[in-house]
User: Which sequence fits this backbone?
């Protein structure tokens, strides 16, 4: 990076976080049920928005390139112990990076076998792999099939949108190679391996065109990720005053196109979770709402970390000082930065707790709350955009529910109730 890495002089979690006090009052941490393993710390692309390589935290430079066999074995054992201790019968493991397909076939096979052997038959283990798609050949797809690996692919849509950011170190765009890989993944032979597409929002791209470009691959699910920014390093195009809400406008255009389709074309995680929360249901992920964080991240050297997206905040933000050699996953649960994200509204700043929308937005992505001096005890830098999107979707949903209620009453022959009775 051209500027020196930003560092934080004090613990970044809210000063009110006291794990011992909370435990004495009866709090019991929720066990992890998802594990992100950084099996390779390098990548074969040089995307200009990557939180791993283009953020304040450059600790990846000192990490082993690949997770060593002994580390894999130790991680697998720690995961098995954690699941058994808490009676968790279903869990997910994501092979991540960097680029996990930089592993050779033998190492990939050994990693999966270590995980399945350690966990045993008493746990349903869902294994997946998140890739940029460059190395997703027919041979690799066949291997993933044999190993029972679901596959997620990162792509930003059409050629111009994708190649603006997702380039190799030589500056060459990767769209053609990724598109070819997606053609193989979406084929009848391999479609059962298709997990989801991940797309980072760029305000310069037409939202509906981007959605329809992604839809051409017939993904079973996709997600739109807001660029990781903080109050110190705001995302591109954000209005700091909050009067304009360009990211809400972009996502709203996608919502209208997706929601108004005559048939459900695919799932969109962010929007599915938003609708679920507005209807009083639980979201499937932790991207919105106040569900406790229940995933752990393990680096290639065995270090136990917080959400690795925290690297965008400052140097060392994701670090915990824990590792699989000396510590269990239970120890990670009691780290203040992890524990605070299991306390729901209690761990939000006063501004967020006073907002009537906080049970839906959940305060926004934890990394996007960062501000030097106050750490993560702030609203998300996307606060205004999230609030505007929630209000628009809530209004549309309310209108549709009201119309559905009126139609039901007409079919019953009762007619609409007087306004005074509603």
Assistant:
């Amino acid at each position: 990076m051209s500027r020196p890495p930003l560092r934080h002089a004090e613990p970044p979690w809210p000063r009110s976080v006291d794990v011992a006090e909370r435990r004495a009052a009866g709090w019991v941490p929720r066990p992890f049920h998802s594990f992100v393993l950084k099996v390779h710390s390098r990548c074969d692309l040089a995307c200009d928005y990557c939180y791993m390589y283009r953020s304040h935290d450059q600790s990846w430079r000192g990490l082993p390139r690949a997770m060593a066999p002994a580390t894999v074995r130790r991680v697998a054992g720690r995961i098995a112990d954690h699941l058994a201790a808490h009676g968790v019968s279903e869990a997910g493991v994501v092979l991540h990076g960097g680029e996990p397909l930089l592993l050779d076939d033998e190492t990939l096979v050994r990693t999966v076998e270590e995980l399945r052997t350690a966990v045993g038959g008493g746990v349903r283990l869902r294994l997946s792999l998140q890739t940029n798609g460059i190395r997703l050949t027919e041979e690799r797809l066949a291997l993933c099939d044999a190993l029972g690996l679901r596959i997620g692919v990162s792509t930003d849509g059409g050629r111009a949108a994708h190649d603006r950011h997702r380039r190799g170190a030589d500056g060459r765009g990767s769209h053609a190679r990724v598109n070819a890989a997606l053609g193989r993944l979406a084929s009848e032979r391999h479609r059962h391996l298709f997990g989801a597409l991940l797309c980072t929002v760029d305000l310069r791209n037409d939202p509906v065109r981007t959605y329809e470009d992604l839809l051409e691959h017939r993904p079973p699910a996709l997600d739109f990720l807001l660029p990781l920014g903080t109050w110190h390093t705001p995302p591109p195009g954000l209005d700091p005053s909050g009067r304009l809400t360009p990211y809400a406008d972009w996502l709203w255009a996608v919502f209208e196109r997706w929601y108004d389709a005559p048939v459900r074309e695919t799932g969109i995680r962010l929007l599915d979770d938003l609708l679920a929360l507005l209807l009083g249901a639980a979201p499937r992920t932790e991207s919105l709402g106040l569900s406790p964080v229940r995933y752990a991240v393990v680096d290639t050297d065995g270090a136990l970390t917080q959400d690795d997206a925290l690297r965008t905040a400052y140097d060392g933000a994701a670090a915990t000082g824990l590792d699989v050699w000396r510590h269990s996953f239970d120890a990670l649960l009691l780290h203040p930065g992890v524990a605070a994200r299991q306390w729901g509204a209690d761990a939000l700043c006063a501004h967020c707790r006073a907002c009537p929308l906080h049970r839906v937005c959940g305060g926004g992505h934890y990394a996007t709350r960062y501000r030097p001096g106050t750490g993560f005890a702030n609203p998300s830098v996307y606060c205004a955009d999230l609030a505007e999107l929630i209000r628009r979707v809530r209004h549309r949903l309310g209108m549709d529910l009201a119309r559905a209620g009126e139609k039901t009453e007409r079919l019953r022959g009762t007619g609409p109730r007087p306004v005074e009775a509603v």
Remarks:
- The chain has a mean pLDDT of 92.
- Residues 383-412 form the longest helix (30 residues).
- The chain is about 35% helix and 10% strand.
